TrEMBL record:
Originating organism: Herbihabitans rhizosphaerae
Keywords noted in UniProt: DNA-binding
Name listed for the protein in its UniProt record: TetR family transcriptional regulator
Residue ranges occupied by any HTH tetR-type domain in the UniProt entry: 4-63
Keyword match tRNA processing: no
MF-aspect GO terms: DNA-binding transcription factor activity; transcription cis-regulatory region binding
InterPro entries per UniProt: Homeodomain-like_sf (IPR009057), HTH-type_TetR-like_transc_reg (IPR050109), HTH_TetR (IPR001647)
Record feature DNA-binding region, as residue ranges: 26-45
Keyword DNA-binding in annotation: yes
A Pfam cross-reference name: TetR_N
């Protein structure tokens, strides 16, 4: 196995351990998960900090942007396409969020030297918007906004869904949200596509 392949394999084995243990993960645990001797970790990475930084850059990498959007079937209704996209994006955001929360809670400080961390996030965002734009383009004639603008707004809806989840206590296993309080991804997508006003109300207003 080449050095690059070995690095990639160790990073993949380390990511779930970081989400579980944060900075407290040991190189022994990492080696066991990767199926290698502990010394092999240090032949590929200078130390544990370098490995952790490589893991963070991996999840923030533009290559981790949701490229599955580009192969989404065009024959689906827009709401269905956006629902699939929304659920996949939220799942990815939660995985990254869980990882970063575990790291920050155990003393991790991002290495922003050289701006690589920031550039990776910005490039991932750009790729996501490009891919989302392709989702909207088949519906361009029926949209009130250009596809790229619609993509940017949809991304905002997905981001806001996570804040909504926090406000209603859905991220806190000890907090009991009131009945009917939960706002689902599909609720948000439905309002995004169809608006918050009922169709019959729109028709009534149109007759005035």
């Amino acid at each position: 196995m080449s050095t690059e392949d070995r690095r990639a394999a160790i990073i993949e084995a380390t990511l779930p351990l970081l989400a579980e243990h944060g900075m407290k993960v040991t190189t022994g645990q990492i080696a066991k998960a990767a199926g290698i001797a502990e010394g092999t970790v240090f032949r590929v990475f200078a130390d544990k900090q370098e490995l952790i930084q490589a893991c963070v850059l991996k999840v923030m990498s533009p290559e981790e942007a949701p490229r599955y959007l580009e192969t989404l079937p065009d024959d689906l209704e827009l709401s269905e396409r956006l629902s699939r996209v929304g659920h996949e994006m939220v799942a990815g955001m939660r995985r990254v969020g869980a990882l970063m929360h575990a790291l920050m809670a155990t003393g991790y400080k991002p290495d922003r030297s050289g701006g690589q961390f920031h550039r990776s996030r910005q490039e991932s965002l750009r790729i996501s918007i490009d891919a989302l734009t392709a989702v909207f383009e088949p519906e361009a004639a029926s949209l009130r906004l250009p596809p790229r603008r619609a993509a940017q707004m949809f991304l905002g809806v997905i981001f806001s869904s996570q804040f909504t989840r926090q406000m209603t206590g859905r991220d806190d296993p000890h907090a009991a949200a009131e009945e009917g309080d939960e706002v689902t991804i599909d609720d948000l997508i439905d309002v995004f596509v169809h608006g918050v006003v009922k169709e019959e109300t729109k028709r009534k207003r149109g007759k005035r």
